[in-house]
């Protein structure tokens, strides 16, 4: 069997050989992270996690660099892999964990594309697959392909013979990438000693700041005219004092929080409700936005959940191509803000009964308020167990 060198371990740090290398060269993680090399590894891990927040998870990362030739630099890259897993585990943020798994698996995919076939076979074998076979047992195929959204991965579009699924040779790397992502996801979060998390907390805080910055880049100021039909319908129901289900209230509150609206503004939405109770509403909004007891931030339900609860109302043409109201909002916002900027039009429109609605030319103020508030979250960042939302926005 072909031997892997140190640079290979830097490209594929999930391999047992890489973990053995770290174990052989590191006394304890606490001590290592105190050393100058350990601090560099944590810095590298921070860069990796930051890149995972910013990259487009539907395509390979653009920042993939050559593995350096100096042994110490290679060792830092290998050590950064477990360090990055510790960081996301300590953060307790499921979205961050998912992001890291996607980013790491895409990186591996990029390296695999130019890999020596013999080495690729070793990598594939470590994942329980072959690097050259175009046949996969159907059960394994389903596990791997179930999260791949492209129609070509659907079993009905595959040749299946005697429990074996055929894939094309140029799809093998994609299968390996997805298999790796699944394994990584299953193994995270790690159980990290609290003392280690405390020592990593300053880095975790920086990661959280990066997430907030990313969220602001993504959503920016609130653009009411970009609200999806379902959210507009719920707001209309609130204004008309129509009875709203618990899920309806949850959906609109989480949505508003996810796009960066301040809690006080969200509470004002409920001012028209006949049984409006300020302290109770404040409590519920704080709870959903993560400012209450558990600190968990909730994500608004995806379209399928909205449909199940009869909250998907008057879907329009844009709805055909999205699976989450937040995705609708992002796409629609792009469509409505660009023409406005070009035409120099101000004012936000929309239908929130709020005299303090942020106009389009007030985005800086709004963004500053969002920053101060410090709780704005990225879409899908907390996948809450109670509501069991599968974030796919
Ligand atoms: S398809 Fe989704 S975004 Fe569109 S109205 Fe229905 S729930 Fe809302």
UniProtKB/TrEMBL annotation:
Record GO biological process: DNA replication initiation; DNA replication, synthesis of primer
UniProt biased composition (Basic and acidic residues): 353-369, 376-393
Domain annotation DNA primase large subunit C-terminal: ranges: 222-324
Keyword annotations of the record: 4Fe-4S, DNA replication, Iron, Iron-sulfur, Metal-binding, Primosome
Binding of [4Fe-4S] cluster, residues: 230, 303, 312, 319
GO MF: 4 iron, 4 sulfur cluster binding; DNA-directed RNA polymerase activity; metal ion binding
GO cellular component, one term: primosome complex
Ranges where the record places region Disordered: 342-393
UniProt-listed Pfam families: DNA_primase_lrg (PF04104), DNA_primase_lrg_N (PF26466)
Cofactor binding: number and manner: Binds 1 [4Fe-4S] cluster.
CDD domains referenced in this protein's UniProt entry, alphabetically: PriL
Transmembrane segments: none
Cofactor: [4Fe-4S] cluster
Stated role: Regulatory subunit of DNA primase, an RNA polymerase that catalyzes the synthesis of short RNA molecules used as primers for DNA polymerase during DNA replication. Stabilizes and modulates the activity of the small subunit, increasing the rate of DNA synthesis, and conferring RNA synthesis capability. The DNA polymerase activity may enable DNA primase to also catalyze primer extension after primer synthesis. May also play a role in DNA repair.
HAMAP family named in the record: DNA_primase_lrg_arc
UniProt record similarity statement: Belongs to the eukaryotic-type primase large subunit family.
Record text on subunit structure and interactions: Heterodimer of a small subunit (PriS) and a large subunit (PriL).
Protein name, entry field: DNA primase large subunit PriL
Lineage summary: Archaea, Methanobacteriati, Methanobacteriota, Stenosarchaea group, Methanomicrobia
Gene behind the chain: priL
């Amino acid at each position: 069997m072909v031997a892997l060198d140190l640079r290979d371990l830097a490209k594929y740090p999930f391999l047992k050989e890489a973990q053995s290398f770290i174990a052989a060269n590191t006394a304890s993680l606490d001590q290592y992270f105190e050393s100058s090399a350990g601090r560099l590894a944590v810095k590298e891990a921070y860069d990796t996690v930051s890149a995972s927040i910013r990259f487009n998870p539907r395509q390979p990362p653009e920042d993939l660099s050559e593995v350096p030739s100096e042994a110490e630099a290679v060792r830092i890259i290998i050590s950064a892999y477990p360090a990055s897993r510790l960081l996301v585990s300590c953060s307790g943020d499921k979205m961050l964990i998912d992001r890291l798994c996607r980013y790491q698996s895409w990186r591996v995919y990029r390296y695999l594309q130019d890999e020596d076939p013999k080495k690729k076979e070793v990598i594939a074998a470590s994942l329980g697959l072959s690097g050259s076979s175009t046949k996969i047992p159907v059960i394994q195929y389903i596990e791997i392909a179930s999260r791949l959204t492209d129609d070509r991965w659907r079993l009905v579009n595959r040749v299946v013979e005697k429990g074996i699924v055929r894939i094309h040779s140029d799809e093998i790397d994609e299968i390996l990438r997805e298999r790796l992502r699944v394994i990584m996801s299953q193994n995270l979060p790690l159980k990290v000693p609290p003392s280690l998390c405390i020592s990593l907390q300053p880095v975790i805080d920086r990661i959280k700041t990066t997430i907030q910055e990313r969220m602001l880049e993504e959503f920016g100021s609130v653009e009411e005219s970009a609200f999806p039909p379902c959210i507009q319908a719920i707001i209309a129901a609130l204004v008309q004092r129509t009875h709203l289900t618990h899920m309806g209230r949850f959906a609109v509150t989480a949505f508003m929080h996810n796009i960066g609206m301040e809690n006080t503004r969200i509470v004002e939405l409920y001012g028209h409700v006949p049984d409006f109770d300020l302290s109770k509403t404040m409590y519920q909004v704080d709870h959903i936005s993560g400012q209450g007891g558990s600190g968990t931030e909730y994500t608004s339900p995806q379209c399928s959940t909205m449909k199940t609860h009869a909250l998907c109302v008057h879907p329009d043409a844009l709805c055909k191509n999205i699976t989450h109201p937040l995705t609708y909002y992002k796409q629609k916002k792009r469509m409505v803000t660009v023409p406005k900027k070009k035409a120099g039009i101000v004012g936000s429109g929309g239908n929130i009964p709020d005299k303090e609605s942020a106009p389009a030319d007030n985005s800086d103020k709004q963004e500053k308020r969002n920053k101060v508030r410090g709780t704005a979250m990225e879409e899908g960042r907390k996948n809450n167990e109670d509501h069991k939302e599968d974030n796919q926005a």
